[in-house]
Sequence to fold (158 residues):
Amino acid sequence: MLRCRARKGMKMATCQSCNSVPASEPFCPKCGAIPQKSPPNAYVIPVLCGMLAMGLVVVMKSAGADAPIMNPTTQEVAVPAPDAVAKILASCGKPDRDRTTTSGRNTIRTFTYRTQRVTAVFSRPENNRWKFEKCVDPTTNQNLKKSELARRLACFRP
Fold:
């Protein structure tokens, strides 16, 4: 009777009746059955790739890779939105008359456009932004409705 002994470095296959057979044998010397080789570990490669990907994510998170990349020489400067005075100056140009007065804590600024017969009034309470108050006719000193303002001074939309 032959015994199934594995020599050093020899791969072993499995037999359902005797549990081990040298890989070089085409059949089991004890029972004559063809041995089944253990299936290759097909899951090892995907598991290793998954572990590598997770490790890469951890390394990138710890290095701050999800933060936006900025050039260290450039600086972001917050530019405030233009206030009402800046808007009218940009759209209608320099007025014929620009007058600033202070009343209590408020500063009042008036722009007069003579050819359009419009005086625009702005106020600024204690160093805040300029705010549009009203438009008046400089000859009659009457408030102008939005439709009349749009007709006379089409470049300005309060």
User: Anything to note?
Assistant: The beta strands are 12-13, 21-22, 97-103, 106-113, 118-125, 131-136. Residues 10-39 form one domain. The longest strand covers residues 106-113.
